[in-house]
Design a protein that fits this description.
The protein is mainly β.
């Protein structure tokens, strides 16, 4: 028997919230807080990011396609897990183009379109613009940041951070290349979570990667 439930999507959403994210977050701690920053979210113009992710013991390998310095971004996630004699599957697309955002269930062939900027990353702050004001805002939101120096990963010069928050049940170590989270491990909302990028390709994805697939029924959501 096969069941479809958006289980990992829900947990991933909680993870983003715990790290200061959320679909309507326009605070100055994200790279999307000003028009200038919206134009260049990632330090790479275009490419494809391959990841391995584990949340609550559930493994997935999300793929991110991006263009226009990350202003256009599509994340495809497939998950499958077995509970007793049941197979639970999930296949999702999230497409973000400027402030247009689509959440698509490829198994149900339905989706929702809204207008909002996604968080630039799951850390809740822009590591390239880590000003005293940003650090103050993090503290005010019960997020405590420790900078752990530089490292190299997949040939990119990265920065290491340790972020904790009693409010969000957060104790997370990050390695980031600009707003690209290369590696993450720790606890978020009380759940063990890990993420690691295994490969980054810098060729431009096809334009179809940023379009709603054929046969999908889209509902407009007014916020």
């Amino acid at each position: 028997m096969k069941l479809h439930i958006p289980f990992l999507t829900l947990v991933a959403g909680l993870l983003l919230v715990s790290c200061g994210g959320g679909g309507n977050n326009n605070s100055s701690t994200t790279a999307q807080s000003t028009d200038e920053n919206v134009k260049k979210i990632y330090p790479i113009e275009h490419g494809t990011i391959y990841q391995k992710m584990t949340v609550m013991g559930i493994e997935s390998e999300p793929i991110i396609y991006f263009d226009k310095w990350g202003v256009w971004k599509t994340t495809e996630t497939r998950t499958e897990m077995k509970i007793l004699n049941q197979v639970i599957t999930d296949h999702k697309l999230e497409i973000s183009k400027d402030k247009d955002f689509w959440e698509i269930d490829l198994e149900k062939k339905t989706g929702v379109k809204s207008q909002r900027y996604l968080p630039a990353n799951s850390m809740g702050f822009d590591p390239e613009h880590l000003t005293d004001e940003v650090k103050k805002q993090l503290v005010e939101n019960d997020m405590h940041l420790e900078e752990l120096g530089d490292t190299t990963m997949l040939g990119f010069k990265c920065k290491n951070f340790h972020v904790t928050s009693k409010k969000w049940g957060l104790d997370m170590y990050y390695t980031s290349y600009g707003n690209i989270v290369m590696k993450m491990r720790g606890m978020a909302v009380g759940f063990p979570s890990t993420l690691e990028i295994t490969k980054i390709e810098t060729a431009a994805p096809g334009a179809d990667k940023f379009e709603v697939p054929e046969g999908i029924t889209i509902e407009e959501q007014k916020l």
